[in-house]
Amino acid sequence: MNRATSAVFGVSPYSTFVRNILMAMLALGVPMAVYGQANVHGQWKTLPTQTPINPVHIALMHTGKVLIVSGSGNVKGNNNFEAAVWDPQADTITTQTLAWDMFCDGMVVLSDGRPFVMGGTLQYDPFHGQKMTAAFDPSTDTFTNQQSMAHGRWYPTGTTLGDGSVMVFSGQDENGVTNKTVEVFKIGTGWGAASTAPFTPPLYPRMHLLPNGTVFNSGAQTTSNIFNPSTHTWTLDVAKTNFGSTRTYGTSVLLPLSPVDLYKPRVVIMGGANPATATTETIDLSVSNPKWVTGPSMSQPRIEMNATILPSGKVLATGGSAMDENGSTASLNADLFDPTTETFSSAGANAFPRLYHSNALLLPDATVLVIGGNPARSTFEPHLEIYSPAYLFNSSGAVATRPTITGAPTGVIGHGSVFQVQTPNAASISSVVVLRAGAVTHAFNMEQRMVNLSFTKGSGVLNVTAPPNGNIVPPGYYLLFILDSSGVPSVAKFVRF
After folding, report:
1. CATH 1.10.150.530 fits 3-392, yes or no
2. What is the Cα–Cα distance from 5 to 107, expressed in whole angstroms?
3. Which residues have a Cβ under 8 Å from the Cβ of 16 and sit 6 or more positions away?
4. Cβ distance 128 to 444 under 8 Å?
5. Farthest CA pair distance, the chain
6. How does 129-148 read in b/e, with b if 16+ C-beta sit within 10 Å?
7. Is the full-model pTM beyond 0.85?
8. Tell me: the pLDDT tens digits for 235-283?
9. Which of 20, 158, 247, 346 could connect to 108 by a Cys-Cys bridge, CB 3.0–4.6 Å?
10. What class, spelled out in words, does domain 418-496 have in CATH?
11. For strand 128-137 and strand 142-146, is the pairing parallel, antiparallel, or unpaired?
């Protein structure tokens, strides 16, 4: 059933990378020296290994490996349903066959570390949703079916709640009708009773757990809504976007939370629509009458884009295109959004068009995996690219010396508790952050979340205070980074709250 793959498909990935990057720079009128400054723009590289299956959904596991779920891979009539595991250390991909079609599912990572697949494809053209679910065990690389949902879901969104349960919303049901219900899954007890929303949601709605325990629906529609999991009730029309049109395949990010401002929740939405927009908007959900505020524009319009929070708190915007599924209008620029100054800066440019079914994911070494692109059925972009942000380089452009974590908790960390992180660099550490292991598909990371932690310094040790509750840090595995006074991050340790 399993086969290891690390094939290179004839053409040198490095020469392809160079050719494409130079063409992109010339087309954009960029001076040839600009993107060579790794300490300013970061650095892009293409890996030798290529993915043998369409990477429609990806999730980072606490083993450090990445689960890739393809299912039928956007190929009608393909009954060879597949998944794979990419090992970043060895740069190898091992594939396996699935029992049912997980194409266009929702995926989160459960509090025990198992990626959890909800729904998928029951029928093509018109698409009908599958109601089956499955959990993937990273220790055995196997899927095990879990209790099915009440009805099918194709294009649903999963959200991990403050008690570790998982909320699923939207998706086409087994009859091809948008599923308006919310269901909640708990490990050990399965799915609870469904509750019906008073509106028809978009497919793959953009949902974020807020520090007060409610769930914010930021789009892609123009009106924003809030769901209360405790009462299963909705507050509608919380705010209306300034863009005024549906941000189809734009993205949404809950910006980093911090104890300094009492974990004030802010959300940014970027891009979307067809033709695409480069605009962004932010909303502060801590105020009594929240409103979307127009922010800076990206360097290019983006539909089918991705946005990835870095340990620095900045957000990397990648991929997409000006016209949906049109590689000739691909947005190859990468932009870096600073939530503090609300400004964008350049993060260089990647080599390959990243359109429909492309993904981006933060890795434990503080780099970002960019993968996929499937604008036409039966074809997809197999190259894997890695972005190394500027914080990994010193002022001369050489690789920076990184702080190191020599010890971190291996057991479960309780909310509100104090735990220790051992490091010989304690005196120079300026921040300690955790980022939830991501799970990405269709221009949205369903698990993305970053929280700054309070800490004090000792001799070779940091005494770190965990956030007070699961609404701020939902139960599960997180990447723990320490950053020095120059903003250079360590390689992460996985910790579990």
Report:
1. no
2. 24
3. 46, 351, 383
4. no
5. 63
6. bbbbbbbbebeebebeebeb
7. yes
8. 999 999 999 999 999 999 999 999 999 999 999 999 999 999 999 999 9
9. 158
10. mainly beta
11. antiparallel
